[in-house]
Design goal:
The chain has about 300 residues and is an alpha/beta fold. It contains 12 helices and 8 strands.
C-alpha cells in the first residue's frame, strides 16, 4: 500500500464523487497493509473500522455482517462513532428479506423450501430501514439488497421485477438503495425499468456467473439511480470457498485481473461523464488482497480519469 503521504496525494487526484473501499475490514492479514503493522485480536470491530477509515484511499466500506443479521442499536452507534463525516458505507440488507428459497447452509431442515419473508416490506422497514435511518443515515452510501442466484423457472424475470416494484412502492425513499442480482436473466428491461422508476441503483457486480462489468455497462438501461454502485467480488468461473481457502490471509495479489481493472476504470469514467457519485467495493477474492486492488485501481483511475 502507498505510504500515508503518497496515499493522500493519490486520493486527491481521484474524481471527487468516487469512493473506493473493501468488502468488510476485519482481516488480520492486512495488518502491514492497513493497520500499521498491528492488529489487536481483542479490539472491537468498530475500533478496527475507525483505523481503516483513516487511510486516505478508503472512503467507503462494505458492511457485510448485516446480511446475516441486522445490526442492533449498539453496533450502529459504535460504527457511526468512529467514522469521519465524509465517509459513506455500503451496508447489506438482511438476507431474510432477499432470500427466495433456503439453502442447506442457511437452514438444513428448510433446504429448498420457500422463504415467507421474501421481499417483505414491513419486515424490512422494521428490522433494517428504521434502525439504519435513525442511527446511521449520515454515513450510509447505499443499502444493498443482494439476491443470491434464483432458478429462472421458479421466479421468471418479469415476475421478479413485479415483486421488486411492489416492494419499493411500499418503502419510503429516505435512504439510498441498490440491488445486486446474481441471476443473469434478471438483467431484463422490466428489472431496469422498476429500479429507474424508484431511483434505485443497479449494483454492477464482478461475480463468477454474471456477465462482466463491461457487458453490464453495455446494457442500455444500466444506470437506474442517482449513483453508480459496483462490487468486484469473484473472477469469471471461480469458486468463492476455494479462493478463500487458497488466498488467505489476503496480504498479497495472487491473480491480478487486468480486464476487471480496465472495466472498473470505465465505470469511474462513466460516472464522471454523467456527473454521478460512484461507489466501488472490492473483495479479497477478486485478486487476492482487496486493499492492494484498491491501490492499483486508484493509480489507474487517477492516471486515466483524473479529478
Amino acid at each position: 500500500m502507498p505510504p500515508l503521504e503518497e496515499a493522500e496525494a493519490l486520493a486527491a487526484a481521484l474524481p471527487r464523487g468516487l469512493r473506493l473501499g473493501t468488502s468488510s475490514w476485519t482481516f488480520p492479514g492486512w495488518k502491514s497493509l492497513v493497520y500499521g503493522g498491528t492488529y489487536p485480536s481483542k479490539a472491537k470491530t468498530a475500533e478496527h473500522l475507525g483505523r481503516y477509515a483513516r487511510y486516505p484511499l478508503f472512503r467507503t466500506v462494505g458492511i457485510d455482517s448485516t446480511y446475516y443479521r441486522p445490526a442492533d442499536a449498539d453496533a450502529l452507534d459504535a460504527m457511526a462513532g468512529v467514522l469521519p463525516g465524509d465517509f459513506r458505507a455500503l451496508m447489506k440488507c438482511w438476507s431474510q428479506i432477499t432470500t427466495f428459497h433456503w439453502s442447506k447452509a442457511m437452514d438444513p431442515q428448510k433446504r429448498g423450501g420457500p422463504n415467507p419473508d421474501f421481499l417483505n416490506a414491513q419486515l424490512f422497514l422494521d428490522a433494517v430501514h428504521g434502525p439504519v435511518l435513525e442511527r446511521f443515515a449520515p454515513w450510509l452510501g447505499t443499502l444493498l439488497l443482494e439476491f443470491a442466484p434464483i432458478p429462472e423457472a421458479k421466479l421468471p424475470p418479469p415476475v421478479f421485477a413485479a415483486m421488486l416494484d411492489r416492494f419499493f412502492s411500499a418503502v419510503p425513499r429516505t435512504l439510498p438503495l441498490s440491488v445486486e442480482v446474481r441471476t443473469p436473466a434478471y438483467l431484463h428491461p422490466a428489472y431496469f425499468a422498476v429500479l429507474r422508476e424508484h431511483n434505485v441503483a443497479h449494483c454492477v457486480n464482478h461475480w463468477s456467473r454474471m456477465p462482466t462489468i463491461g457487458a453490464q455497462l453495455d446494457q442500455a438501461d444500466v444506470v437506474t439511480g442517482d449513483q453508480l454502485v459496483a462490487r468486484l467480488l469473484l473472477g469469471q468461473g471461480q469458486d468463492y470457498e476455494s479462493q478463500r481457502d487458497a488466498w488467505a490471509p489476503f496480504d498479497r495479489l495472487v491473480e491480478p485481473d487486468e480486464q476487471m481493472r480496465t472495466e472498473a476504470v470505465r465505470l469511474a469514467r462513466t460516472a464522471q461523464q454523467l456527473g454521478l457519485d460512484c461507489t466501488v467495493i472490492v473483495n479479497n477474492k477478486a485478486e487476492g488482497s482487496s486493499p492492494l486492488t484498491v491501490a492499483a485501481l486508484a493509480r489507474r483511475i487517477a492516471a486515466e480519469v483524473g479529478v
